[in-house]
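Hi R.,

As promised, here are both runs. First protein below:
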Amino acid sequence: VYRGVRVAGLHMSLKHSQNKAAPHFPHDYPDCPAGARFQEEQEAEFLDKFRRRPPAKRTNYIKHGCLAPFRCPWQQLAEEWELLTTEGGAEGKGYGQTESTTKTDVIEEVTSQQNIAATNPPSCFNVLRNRKSLRLLSAWCRPTASKGKRQRPGAAVPPLTPSAVTSFNAAHRMSLLWVRLTLLSKGNPEAHAMVCVPTAEDLKLFSKDKAGSGPQEPPHKDHFKSRIKRKKKSSKKAATSLFSSDDRASDPITPKDPQSSSDLILGLWPDPLPSVTSHCSRVTLGWVTQGDFSLSVGCGEALGFVSVAGLLNTLLNQPVEHRGKLLLRNPTSLHYRFVKLNIDV
């Protein structure tokens, strides 16, 4: 240290990769066994920390419309977008419609094909790392190259058409895309934040006031709160009846209480999650793996993955001047922020 050596640990290495906008192992490699194991360990750690806090002092993620605040269900996201794009459900519907119409259309499309997906064996997702495909996607977004630089002169880019989108989706099925999201206003992104598709009304508001705040998610209703209260009341009544009767048969009943309480946790969705793409008022494209205030950019920056099929359908339905603009919402907030999509090659 006296010779000028900088001492840093694992946390600082994660921050260093975030400032470089580079993926960090194993945080940002969900398609390998190490990434899947790390996600399971991280979910268990966050869940244990969430349970240690009293219910009145922790966030109710059900009311915030956050299905998975401690993990990112990449497999379910890729499967749902594959179902939407194979039958032409999301491709034929423009995202310039109203929020309620878009949400109901996506819900009907996913639920109508749930039985078909159950019969076929699901294929695992993968992360798109082909440089040629990444350059093509970067050219279809704005800016047209990595780190805000312009594309090389002389490189012919095919136009973004529905035929090009269908051919690209056929070549890269069940694929995720590593993206860099730069906030266009104030705020700091957090881990497991949702990346969503803006509606036509959101883009109009952004064109009028670029420095203004984005839209807000309406609060959701917690349908599991009454069930948890009923279970607590029934367990208390059973405990009082057992203690009053002085029955020694309470030993086989005691291990049932933690099992029943582990099924439903106040503020968290149970394990069979509903549709992750159409749960909120804005259609979900992906999630953030790491995000904070970036010292290299001077604003909030997030790194994460989005569905390739969902991103292509979004770019196809967006106007050229707003192409590459998305929405980002933290798990503990109802406020959406406008972000700029960048694909680094």
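And here is the second one, sequence first, then its structure tokens:
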Amino acid sequence: GPVLCVAMNPSGEQCYSGGLDSMIVVWNIPNSDIDPYDAYDANVLYKVLEGHTDAVWRLAICGQKLLSCSADGTVRLWDPNINNSLQSTVNTNLEEGIPTSIDWLAQETNHFVVSYDRLKSVIYDVETSKVLLRLENDIQFPDSTYRINRVISHPSQSLIITAHDDRKIRFFDSSTGKMVHSMVAHLDAVTSLAIDPQQTCLLSGSHDRSIRLWNLDSKNCIQEVTAHQKKDDESVHDVAFHYSKPYLASVGADSIAKIYA
């Protein structure tokens, strides 16, 4: 079935893909000199992680630990390099809703954050799978426009950033759960977020067709690029920074991937 998400191992030796078929596949990255028209090498497929019962739409990697969230309502923790890869499962009874996004907390690598379709974000402990903290909504009775499309953790600060359907980006203190800043960032739903390796800029993508670069300290917009055309009322689906080179990228509903210097 269609591939919905991909995550790269920090070593660059393996990558993980999740899809509509509910499976997570672990791939060995072939040598870059390989001829793409060569016969298929079965060694590229390392392992298939089975456990989810519906589409897998987000993956997050931290060292040897892999997080996945699925339309089946669960968030699962895996160690792909051992026989019994599935380590734990949270939200098995759908008590929080359906997860929409996940990320590891860089400051506390034994913690991870999950956003749910019931308009809330929750921090969990890896060892116990227990809820540690809930992020406080700034709206007492949020409606569907508050929907959280992406949640990311700052690499070196106690900061969690969320992207919402109501055109806003919100910033939370991950140690207290309190919101520290909120801003209208786009003209349509904010779909994606990424922080540059130097940790000075935030990149956001939106269904308003644009990607915008923000100064993380001042929260001012540094640059805006009209990146993608709309299709079925959708536009930018994801954004990313290169780990070591001065590149950023965006992908959109117009079936185009763009790389920017």
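A quick note on the second one: The chain has a mean pLDDT of 93. Let me know what you think.

Best,
J.
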